[in-house]
Amino acid sequence: MKKHTIVVANWKMNPETPEEAKKIFNGIRLATKRLKNVKVVVCPPFPFLYPLSKLKYPKNLFLGAQNISNEIKGSFTGEVSANMIKNLEAKFVIIGHSERRYPSAGEGESNEVIRKKLQIAFDVGLTPILCVGEKERDNEGAYLAFIKNQIKECLIGLSKKYLLDIIVAYEPIWAIGKSYKNAMSPTDIHEIVLYIRKVLDELFGRNIATGAKVLYGGSVESESALPIMKYGNVDGLLIGHASLKPEQFVEILKESDIKR
Ligand code: PEP
User: Is 5-256 in CATH node 3.20.20.70?
Assistant: First the structure.
């Protein structure tokens, strides 16, 4: 069976106008059409989902959101529900990004809240992308236990049917928002992807461990996408700052378009 690579663009709180959003999106759209092995998911801020949903899409291009509420509907001021974004043609949603787990102000999301969001996303028919990753590395390997606990507490209790479709994005916080030179090496990424599959196997069984898609995110730029795709053992990439620069992002897409 053909294995598609998934490349996710996380625009975070950028750009500032719908015109700019459309301009970036159109650059991505034209390049995506020519890709053979890659599915591209663009996750703009909520206000741009509507204008972007009105554009034309090649088969391998999808809209996604960066978050959803952990409630279905009702009196939750400022929240956006899973159904609202589903009705704007979004197919994917990023859940548990580190910038939501550890925001610069206020309380962050717990694994428990993230688990609820995953459940709701699956229930309404969205495909969630669960982000995990440690703040820092230590020599004793405490970061490995930390990642295992995140996976366990975020996924425990979800039905097998849902777990079979799980996408895990490994995003070490210490490697986010830097240059590719400060990010992880493909060899280290390879190792951690094996570890994540081992954890999934221990917790949920072989089928879920082998079926899961594992992405890497953290300062991937056009200089590093190809080696990570070739040697990092990943099913795809989650791209932050580089996804806002259409030329650089298109390069990343081309480098990701390899048969696996
Ligand atoms: C992210 O925050 O999801 C991310 C991958 O960001 P960057 O590529 O900018 O490190």
Answer: yes
